[in-house]
Amino acid sequence: DVQLVESGGGLVQPGESLRLSCVADSYTIGRYCMGWFRQAPGKEREGVAILDRLDGTSYADSVKGRSTISKDTARNTLYLQMNSLKPEDTAMYYCAASPTWGRCVWERRGYDYWGHGTQVTVS
Asked: CB neighbours (10 Å) of residue 30?
């Protein structure tokens, strides 16, 4: 089964940066749509950034311009670099993978595999 393991979260001050990591198997990281989602207390889980199998990227408006999603296939790792962090970025961040053919989607229901999350707190 597909296992996704996130790391890199923590407590940071506003304006600081974090790089989140998600380790997966080589097939998943190389062939699936990969996404970062986040969920703050009392709010729905929302997409943050998407990386398709051809390395195309898309970002939520809330993080566009200060976040970068990327992968290192040699390390089987997906990354989310987040700069200029704001208190509003505080959330549990989840790595997700989808075997969906064609375009990657933003809806959480389109992602079959999820990690357990890594907490980002900006305060």
From this structure: 13
